[in-house]
């Protein structure tokens, strides 16, 4: 589409904008909206972006295509009255405890209420308060603060390809919730936190662990150690008015010392260690041609996604723990005894850009003598809250440096924070181990046609090559996995990050309306890599010393015990059976799985066919038909259980024969 549009008497050229809202913002007008997100499908629910077009009248800017010759007014007395009324209606049904709300100061509803000068609400609350869902380790869901913008629903479905949340009920009772009224902990939520970033209010927010950290800092019997992830240093400054991507490592370390942490370490050291272990594992598989492609395991949201949706791939995941869990394990298993301390005497805090790390830290396999290897995980946003609570003026802090030995890292560890960083670090190390020569510091990753958010690189060797792929967002990973399993693409190493552009776009990062925030953070991390004294893992003297002191060599039994882990298939939805045909005196019980995998393989058709067969045979009073979730055979569905007998791969065309044999004959 080409041409011009006149917006508030200013003429603008149409240059690929997909809706009028984008063009209006290009004109420098902050047109209000709740439900619009530049990465999501248009929804048009909130109507805050309504504008007046000369010929068309009132239109929603977010899902109206720009056309040549349009004349648009964004602000008139009538439009302002409409927006104020919309805000009043939203506020009428909203928990207005803004003074104690966790998102006060960052809430879009609060911001627009102040902007439009609303000081009176003419409408009464029409609904009862609903319980908050605090079951998840990663996030809190408060339906009383939801404005029904649908951003979380679309983000989970369109970006992550999961669809944990959706609209339920009708009319005034409509709400956003997980399937069948389940809690977030009972469904297939991976804890990535992208719904938090998309939410304009506090309906979805980070599950804070700040109080536990303060308690530990104030406990004289605890030595409190903190480690910070690479992506935090290029985002923390945004919380204090800094630019996205600006490196604030020195001020961050100084702030952590002021907060009272006894030792401040760098998770990049753990990333260096991960690169050594993962490279050793990869070369073993690569040389034998086994369990390829190897999938990275640094991202806990991806790992949980694989456990829910791709149990067939768990043997191909690297067994390496994520970097912060590696460092936590070392601190509890080796460092504490050397200091004359028990694991319980140490309190290890990880500052992460990621909300899924909170769940990861609670995995039972990540413990030492009953003590979690990482006791608390706080996000970048939570750290900023602690700094403010302490009254620290972040901008005026003098820079400080990490403690040794776990504060010294190579550039390879630093780049773990953005998409392609992990694979780059692994391949740098692999080339050095294979050739004994200095590896290239960067590799050329090119987009893969037809696969959004997927890149690939081919690294030539003296004999053969290493084919690498990187993918960010789980929706994109889902498509790549399907292509791999269909034989359409082939790689030796696949790096998966659940969040857009990697950890720099994590759910625990500062909220930003700058659509260039993630690219700027990535550039900041690339700059941090280039500024490092050493840029390859094998040049880190403290890594070499650590192996000599505690682990012997990469891949040793000691290293596997301390630095590696295992995985297991997970249910997608916990709980109930849902009656479909409820017999008065059931003598045959049939259960059909309607979980995602079975649904995609046709389980709803199976249910309909069974209903038809039951009614045709006039057995509605003798057969009990129920829908259920996850019969633990996700890769071989549709799955059906008839009187305790599990049947896999039940196609509709087989049902008549199965029904005759296992139901009709049993009831004869």
From TrEMBL:
<dbReference type="InterPro" id="IPR000283">
    <property type="entry name" value="NADH_UbQ_OxRdtase_75kDa_su_CS"/>
</dbReference>
<dbReference type="Pfam" id="PF10588">
    <property type="entry name" value="NADH-G_4Fe-4S_3"/>
</dbReference>
<keyword id="KW-1278">Translocase</keyword>
<dbReference type="GO" id="GO:0042773">
    <property type="term" value="P:ATP synthesis coupled electron transport"/>
</dbReference>
<keyword id="KW-0001">2Fe-2S</keyword>
<dbReference type="InterPro" id="IPR036249">
    <property type="entry name" value="Thioredoxin-like_sf"/>
</dbReference>
<feature type="domain" description="4Fe-4S ferredoxin-type">
    <location>
        <begin position="180"/>
        <end position="209"/>
    </location>
</feature>
<feature type="domain" description="4Fe-4S ferredoxin-type">
    <location>
        <begin position="137"/>
        <end position="167"/>
    </location>
</feature>
<dbReference type="Pfam" id="PF02906">
    <property type="entry name" value="Fe_hyd_lg_C"/>
</dbReference>
<dbReference type="InterPro" id="IPR050340">
    <property type="entry name" value="Cytosolic_Fe-S_CAF"/>
</dbReference>
<feature type="domain" description="2Fe-2S ferredoxin-type">
    <location>
        <begin position="3"/>
        <end position="78"/>
    </location>
</feature>
<feature type="domain" description="4Fe-4S His(Cys)3-ligated-type">
    <location>
        <begin position="78"/>
        <end position="117"/>
    </location>
</feature>
<keyword id="KW-0520">NAD</keyword>
<dbReference type="InterPro" id="IPR003149">
    <property type="entry name" value="Fe_hydrogenase_ssu"/>
</dbReference>
<dbReference type="InterPro" id="IPR017896">
    <property type="entry name" value="4Fe4S_Fe-S-bd"/>
</dbReference>
<protein>
    <submittedName>
        <fullName>NADP-reducing hydrogenase subunit HndD</fullName>
    </submittedName>
</protein>
<keyword id="KW-0004">4Fe-4S</keyword>
<keyword id="KW-0677">Repeat</keyword>
<dbReference type="GO" id="GO:0051537">
    <property type="term" value="F:2 iron, 2 sulfur cluster binding"/>
</dbReference>
<dbReference type="InterPro" id="IPR017900">
    <property type="entry name" value="4Fe4S_Fe_S_CS"/>
</dbReference>
<keyword id="KW-0479">Metal-binding</keyword>
<dbReference type="InterPro" id="IPR036991">
    <property type="entry name" value="Fe_hydrogenase_ssu_sf"/>
</dbReference>
<keyword id="KW-0411">Iron-sulfur</keyword>
<dbReference type="GO" id="GO:0008901">
    <property type="term" value="F:ferredoxin hydrogenase activity"/>
</dbReference>
<dbReference type="GO" id="GO:0051539">
    <property type="term" value="F:4 iron, 4 sulfur cluster binding"/>
</dbReference>
<dbReference type="Pfam" id="PF12838">
    <property type="entry name" value="Fer4_7"/>
</dbReference>
<dbReference type="GO" id="GO:0008137">
    <property type="term" value="F:NADH dehydrogenase (ubiquinone) activity"/>
</dbReference>
<dbReference type="InterPro" id="IPR004108">
    <property type="entry name" value="Fe_hydrogenase_lsu_C"/>
</dbReference>
<dbReference type="Pfam" id="PF13510">
    <property type="entry name" value="Fer2_4"/>
</dbReference>
<dbReference type="InterPro" id="IPR036010">
    <property type="entry name" value="2Fe-2S_ferredoxin-like_sf"/>
</dbReference>
<comment type="similarity">
    <text>Belongs to the complex I 75 kDa subunit family.</text>
</comment>
<dbReference type="Pfam" id="PF02256">
    <property type="entry name" value="Fe_hyd_SSU"/>
</dbReference>
<dbReference type="InterPro" id="IPR013352">
    <property type="entry name" value="Fe_hydrogenase_subset"/>
</dbReference>
<dbReference type="InterPro" id="IPR019574">
    <property type="entry name" value="NADH_UbQ_OxRdtase_Gsu_4Fe4S-bd"/>
</dbReference>
<dbReference type="GO" id="GO:0016020">
    <property type="term" value="C:membrane"/>
</dbReference>
<keyword id="KW-0408">Iron</keyword>
<dbReference type="InterPro" id="IPR009016">
    <property type="entry name" value="Fe_hydrogenase"/>
</dbReference>
<dbReference type="Pfam" id="PF01257">
    <property type="entry name" value="2Fe-2S_thioredx"/>
</dbReference>
<dbReference type="InterPro" id="IPR001041">
    <property type="entry name" value="2Fe-2S_ferredoxin-type"/>
</dbReference>
<keyword id="KW-0472">Membrane</keyword>
<dbReference type="GO" id="GO:0005506">
    <property type="term" value="F:iron ion binding"/>
</dbReference>
């Amino acid at each position: 589409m080409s041409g011009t549009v006149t917006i508030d008497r200013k003429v603008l050229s149409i240059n690929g904008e997909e809706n009028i809202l984008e063009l209006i913002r290009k004109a420098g007008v902050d047109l209000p909206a709740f439900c619009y997100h530049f990465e999501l499908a248009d929804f048009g629910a909130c109507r805050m972006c309504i504008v007046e077009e000369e010929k068309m009248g009132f239109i929603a800017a977010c899902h109206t295509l720009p056309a040549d010759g349009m004349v648009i007014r964004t602000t008139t007395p009538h439009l302002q009255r409409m927006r104020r009324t919309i805000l009043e209606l939203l506020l009428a049904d909203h928990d207005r405890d803004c003074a104690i709300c966790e998102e006060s100061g960052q809430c879009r509803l609060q911001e627009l209420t102040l902007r439009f000068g609303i000081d009176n609400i003419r409408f009464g609350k029409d609904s009862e308060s609903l319980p908050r869902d605090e079951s998840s380790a990663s996030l809190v869901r408060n339906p009383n603060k939801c404005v029904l913008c649908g951003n979380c629903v679309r983000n989970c479905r369109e970006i992550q390809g999961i669809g944990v949340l959706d609209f339920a009920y009708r009319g005034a009772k409509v709400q956003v919730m997980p399937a069948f009224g389940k809690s977030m902990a009972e469904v297939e939520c991976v804890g990535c936190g992208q719904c938090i970033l998309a939410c304009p209010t506090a309906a979805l927010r980070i599950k804070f662990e700040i109080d536990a950290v303060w308690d530990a800092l104030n406990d004289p019997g605890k030595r409190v150690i903190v480690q910070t992830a690479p992506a935090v240093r290029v985002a923390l400054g945004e919380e204090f008015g800094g630019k996205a991507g600006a490196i604030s490592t020195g001020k961050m370390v100084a702030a952590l010392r002021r907060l009272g942490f006894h030792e401040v370490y760098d998770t990049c050291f753990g990333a260096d260690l991960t690169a050594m272990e993962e490279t050793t594992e990869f070369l073993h598989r690569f040389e034998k041609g086994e369990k390829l492609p190897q999938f990275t395991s640094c991202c806990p949201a991806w790992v949980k996604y694989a456990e829910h949706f791709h149990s067939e791939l768990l043997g191909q995941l690297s067994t390496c723990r994520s970097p912060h869990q590696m460092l936590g394990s070392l601190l509890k298993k080796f460092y504490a005894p050397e200091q004359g301390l028990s694991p319980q005497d140490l309190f290890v805090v990880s500052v992460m850009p990621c909300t899924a790390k909170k769940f990861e830290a609670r995995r039972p396999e990540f413990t030492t003598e009953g003590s979690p290897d990482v006791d608390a995980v706080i996000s970048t946003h939570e750290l900023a809250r602690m700094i403010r609570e302490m009254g620290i003026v972040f901008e005026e802090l003098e820079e400080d440096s990490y403690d040794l030995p776990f504060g010294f890292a190579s550039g390879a560890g630093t780049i773990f924070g953005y998409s392609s960083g992990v694979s780059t670090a692994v391949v740098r190390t692999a080339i050095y181990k294979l050739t004994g020569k200095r590896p290239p510091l960067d590799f050329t990753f090119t987009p893969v046609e037809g696969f959004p958010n997927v890149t690939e690189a081919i690294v030539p060797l003296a004999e053969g090559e290493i084919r690498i792929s990187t993918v960010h967002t789980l929706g994109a990973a889902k498509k790549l996995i399907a292509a791999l399993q269909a034989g359409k693409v082939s790689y030796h190493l696949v790096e998966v990050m659940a969040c857009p552009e990697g950890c720099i776009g994590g759910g625990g990062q500062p909220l930003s309306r700058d659509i260039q925030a993630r690219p700027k953070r990535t550039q900041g991390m690339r700059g941090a890599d280039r500024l490092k004294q050493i840029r390859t893992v094998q040049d880190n003297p403290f890594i070499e010393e650590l192996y000599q002191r505690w682990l012997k060599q990469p891949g040793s039994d000691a290293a596997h015990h301390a630095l590696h882990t295992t995985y297991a298939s997970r249910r997608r939805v916990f709980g109930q059976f849902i009656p479909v045909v409820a017999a008065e005196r059931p003598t045959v019980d049939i259960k059909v799985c309607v979980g995602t995998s079975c649904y995609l393989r046709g389980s709803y058709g199976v249910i309909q066919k069974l209903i038809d067969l039951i009614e045709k045979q006039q057995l509605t009073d003798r057969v009990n038909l129920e829908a259920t979730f996850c019969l633990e055979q996700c890769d071989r569905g549709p799955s059906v259980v008839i009187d305790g007998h599990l049947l896999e791969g039940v196609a509709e065309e087989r049902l008549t024969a199965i029904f005759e044999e296992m139901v009709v004959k049993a009831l004869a």
